[in-house]
Every structure is written in structure tokens, then in C-alpha cells.
TrEMBL record, chains A, B:
<dbReference type="InterPro" id="IPR002912">
    <property type="entry name" value="ACT_dom"/>
</dbReference>
<keyword id="KW-0584">Phenylalanine biosynthesis</keyword>
<dbReference type="InterPro" id="IPR008242">
    <property type="entry name" value="Chor_mutase/pphenate_deHydtase"/>
</dbReference>
<dbReference type="Pfam" id="PF00800">
    <property type="entry name" value="PDT"/>
</dbReference>
<dbReference type="GO" id="GO:0004664">
    <property type="term" value="F:prephenate dehydratase activity"/>
</dbReference>
<keyword id="KW-0028">Amino-acid biosynthesis</keyword>
<dbReference type="InterPro" id="IPR045865">
    <property type="entry name" value="ACT-like_dom_sf"/>
</dbReference>
<keyword id="KW-0456">Lyase</keyword>
<feature type="domain" description="ACT">
    <location>
        <begin position="194"/>
        <end position="271"/>
    </location>
</feature>
<keyword id="KW-0057">Aromatic amino acid biosynthesis</keyword>
<dbReference type="InterPro" id="IPR018528">
    <property type="entry name" value="Preph_deHydtase_CS"/>
</dbReference>
<feature type="domain" description="Prephenate dehydratase">
    <location>
        <begin position="3"/>
        <end position="180"/>
    </location>
</feature>
<dbReference type="InterPro" id="IPR001086">
    <property type="entry name" value="Preph_deHydtase"/>
</dbReference>
<protein>
    <recommendedName>
        <fullName>Prephenate dehydratase</fullName>
        <ecNumber>4.2.1.51</ecNumber>
    </recommendedName>
</protein>
<comment type="pathway">
    <text>Amino-acid biosynthesis; L-phenylalanine biosynthesis; phenylpyruvate from prephenate: step 1/1.</text>
</comment>
<dbReference type="Pfam" id="PF01842">
    <property type="entry name" value="ACT"/>
</dbReference>
């Protein structure tokens, strides 16, 4: 059975995401202590793939993932999952008075309002992960833990004091399943392509990069810059856009970025989690691309009209 | 011997240009009364090619040529010539007092300063062409004619009162040799490509069209709009830019314009008259284009890095 790495420990959101990302094949899930370690295990072949978080609609992107993706041997995303960020509050059976509540700082940040309203007297404590907080409640260190919905499966002797809580009910975390490069998944008509591109510190460089996409009718869904560690003033841009590398307009745009950028890394073409089909302008359709290339071939061969 | 049409009569600038444009093959030059007639003779196969003026650095472009190029069967330019605009003043031998001077209105417009200074008392009269003015001087209708330098060969019984005159000494007229479509001339590294493109009446349409060129490092040397006769608010743009359709960056840009424009007509790739080599940015070189296309092919096949 193929092994799939995830950011542990068991009972966290990333385990839940890794199950979701591997629901179409039999996989044994292996927890790792850090995203960089999980990705290293993919690169060495120790595991087939890794499920990692890339961005969170409350906390923003996950720098550890971006950095681990842009350094080292190339890896590509083959699947995407969006997990709603909803938490449970677990306690020992019979707990009446909650005087302390623990969790990972990110989780605490996303239920601050709920805690203030429902457990106003409780002391808020920091744990290493949501699952670790549950283990600590079980050991009697705290009265309650804010956890992922899956935690109850790991700690069945705890009970839910509350479930599905979140200050922002629509918040989601986005996860990717990463593998060593290979033939990308088949296009589905509702795909996303991710790249990391380095451009120099020149006037207009980013505008021109974005124009390469917009002129080909490509819809950008995310852009984020991080300074490269190599040179001051040089930035690496993480871009997500609608479409699949097999699409003519996407391949054409990637070629253009490869010419333009001092470095460009393909991070995969994969089905979008929400399955929303790409809107392709008529002038950017496969047929129009094929027709335009044929027109130039004909002109070069002296066959016009 | 192949026939080459030109805008007559004999002894004008266009005859001079047509000789220049056909100096690499034996051609019999045939004068036509109008550019449209000369181009029609190419389209029907009556003649092999036509030498026509397209623009003049004093008078601007030649609408008759642009219109005749954009309607009817496609024609393509295969050679370009730039003729300095210099005039002679011809008189009958023994003429002392010049009381009248005649020429084509365009010619008169370009020597107005010279006439005011050197023949201030002469009456200025309009003829149908510079050559016609010479014929009329020979017939005694006027005292002097402002003519092309070649006119003296047609009217050897006249003599030069002045030669090489022009108010603007650097003015030139640009001519093209047009043929029915065929394999374009070999690239020389100093080529020009001409097109006519129709874009709709939409915000940003022209900016985006120009961006398709600039993003590929293509240097525009001329742009001119003319309303199409079909629809109000719709324009046809005549564009000249450095490079040859055989160049990767030019073929790529033409494909993009074909996708974008409601109509685009290739008007030829041909050596520039001034032989100034195109400046190609490193990111737009043949090798970089080949390499970027190969990169995308490799990614699609799952072979990265």
C-alpha cells in the first residue's frame, strides 16, 4: 500500500485533509513533524505523496509549504482539497466547569469570539497542536481542548462540549497532494495550475508577467510574493490560475513566462476542489489557438486565403 | 520577361522606385494610371508584381495603396525601397526668364520654400504628374517643371535649371513591391513585417494588440488607423514591425493577433531598405523560444528538471 505523508500528529486537520486527498486510492497515512520533512520524504521516495496545507482563508498562506516547494527537487500538486475550518471542544466526560482551554495558537485565533462568549472565565493555554491539546485534556492538564472534528476518533474517551464552532463560518484551509513530477492528471475542464516564478527588480516586470496571462484570457486566482533568499529586491511569485497545462492557452502562457522569468517552476495542474469550470473566452479556446497556429504555418508556407 | 506594374506615367518617382525594386531580376516595367489598377493587374496575373508608394515622410501615407491592399485578394510585399525626395527643375534650352512653373501638387508642396526663394515671380501651376509637367514645358505651356530626377531621361531635350532641390533634405518616399502570396523571401536578419488588423470598438483593444507585440520584444515602426467602411467605430490598423514571419517571436505574435482581431491580413515579410538589423532582446531570441516550447512539452510529458 502506498505511503502518504502528512503534517501530524494524528487527529488534526491535516490528517483529515490527507484522507480526503487519498479517497480514490488505498494509502497508508504517515504523520511527519514538519511540512519540510514530509516533502523530503516524497523527494527521497520514502513516501509516494504528501498532503500539505498551502493557505488558510483566515491565517493566509503557509510559508513553510511555499518555501519547501520552491527549494529542492521539483514536486507537483496532483489534487486539491478545501476543508472548512470548524472546531470541536472536547472535555473529559462529566466535566461541568471549564477553567482552562488549550489548543494550537492558529486554532485559538479562529475561535476567540466563541471562547469569549461561551467560556468567558476559562484560562486560554497554548499546545503544540490541536491533537496534543486533546491528549493533554485526557491527561488532566487542561479542562478543554479546541480540536479538529477528527480528534474525537483519536480520543474516543473524551466527549464533545461543543461542535462545529468557528468565528468565521466560511473559513477554509486549502491542501494539496504533492508528488514527484510525472504526467499531470487528465484535464477535467475545471482545473487549476500553480507556478512559482522569479522576476528581477525591474520597472514593469510584474505587470508584464500578469499581462502574459490576461492577454491569453487566463484568470488568476491567487498571487503572493516572497523575497528570494538569493538577492535583495528579487521576488518569487506564487501564482494560481484557472486551466490545465494541457490547454493551449496555458501551455502558451507558461512558455512566455519561461522566456520572461529568471526562474519558473511548474507546481502542477490539478482538478479544482470546488469543481467550478474555467470560463474560457472564445478567443482563447483550443480551436482558436489551433486555428491561429495553422494560419501562421500556412503563411510561412506561402498558402494564404 | 516578367511584367511589373507601376504608377505612371514614365519619368516619375514611382518609375524610379520600380527600377530600384526590380534591380535583381529582368523585368519589363508597365505604367498604370492608378495604384488600384496596378494591384488589380497583379491579382489577375496580368503582371507579376507592382511597385507602389506606401508612405512619404512629408505627405504621410498613401491612402489609395492602403485601401487597395486591404480589399480584394491578398497581396504581399516582397521588397522595400526608400527613395530620397529630391526634385529637378527642367526648362527648355535657352530659357532665361521663368514666368510659370508647373508640377504635381505633392511635388509643389515639397519645394514651396525653394520656389519662393529662387523663382519668386513665377506663377505656380498644377499638372497631373511631375512627368506631365515636363511634357507641358516641352510643348511650351509652362516655362519650368518640377520633376523627379529621372524625368530628364524621358525628356532629354529639356535641360536642368536646378537639381536635387527639396525644402526638407531628408524626406523620403517608401515603396513596396507587391506580389500574389507565396513563400516569403528568406529572412535576412534585417526584415520588416506588415499587417492590417481590424479590432472592435472596445476599451483597451488597441492597447492589448500592441502589448502582444511589445511583450514579445517586437519593435513597432509604424502604426496607422483607417476606419473600415463596414462598421462605424471599427478601425483597421496598418502596422509595420521589425522581424520576419519565419522568426519565432513574429510567428507567435501573429498567432496572437489572429486570435484577437476580427480580421488580420498578412502584408508580407521583406528585407528593410536600410538593412538595419533588428535588435532582438535575449528573451525573444529563436533559441529562447525553442527552449520555452520544449520546456512546456517536457512538463506535459511529465519530464521535469
Amino acid at each position: 500500500m502506498p505511503l502518504v505523508a502528512y503534517l501530524g500528529p494524528r487527529g488534526t486537520f491535516t490528517e483529515q485533509a490527507s484522507r480526503c486527498l487519498t479517497d480514490d486510492f488505498d494509502a497508508e497515512l504517515v504523520p511527519f513533524d514538519a511540512v519540510s520533512q514530509a516533502l523530503r520524504a516524497v523527494r527521497t521516495g520514502e513516501v509516494l505523496a504528501a498532503a500539505v496545507p498551502v493557505e488558510n482563508s483566515v491565517e493566509g498562506s503557509v510559508p513553510a509549504t511555499l518555501d519547501a516547494l520552491s527549494a529542492g527537487d521539483p514536486l507537483v500538486a496532483v489534487r486539491e482539497a478545501m476543508l472548512p475550518i470548524r472546531f470541536d471542544v472536547l472535555v473529559r466526560p462529566g466535566t461541568r466547569d471549564v477553567r482552562s482551554v488549550a489548543s494550537h495558537p492558529h486554532a485559538l485565533g479562529q475561535v476567540r469570539g466563541w471562547l469569549a462568549e461561551h467560556l468567558p472565565g476559562a484560562e486560554v493555554r497554548v499546545s503544540g497542536s490541536t491533537a496534543a491539546a486533546a491528549a493533554e485534556v485526557l491527561a488532566g492538564e487542561h479542562d478543554a481542548a479546541v480540536t479538529a472534528p477528527t480528534a474525537i476518533e483519536e480520543y474516543p474517551s473524551l466527549v464533545r462540549l461543543a461542535e462545529g464552532i468557528a468565528d468565521l463560518p466560511d473559513a477554509v484551509t486549502r491542501f494539496l497532494l504533492l508528488r514527484r513530477p510525472g504526467i499531470p492528471p487528465e484535464p477535467t475542464g475545471a482545473d487549476r495550475t500553480s507556478i512559482a516564478a522569479v522576476i528581477g527588480d525591474e520597472v514593469g516586470a510584474l505587470t508584464e508577467l500578469l499581462a502574459e496571462l490576461s492577454l491569453r484570457g487566463i484568470n488568476l486566482s491567487r498571487i503572493e510574493s516572497r523575497p528570494t533568499k538569493d538577492r535583495l529586491g528579487e521576488y518569487r511569485f506564487f501564482l494560481d490560475f484557472d486551466g490545465h497545462i494541457a490547454d493551449a492557452r496555458i501551455g502558451d502562457a507558461l512558455s512566455a513566462l519561461h522566456r520572461r522569468c529568471s526562474e519558473v517552476r511548474f507546481l502542477g495542474s490539478y482538478p479544482k476542489a470546488d469543481r467550478s469550470p474555467a470560463t474560457v473566452r472564445p478567443a482563447a479556446s483550443e480551436q482558436v489557438f489551433r486555428h491561429s497556429a495553422q494560419w501562421v504555418d500556412d503563411l510561412r508556407a506561402g498558402a494564404i486565403g
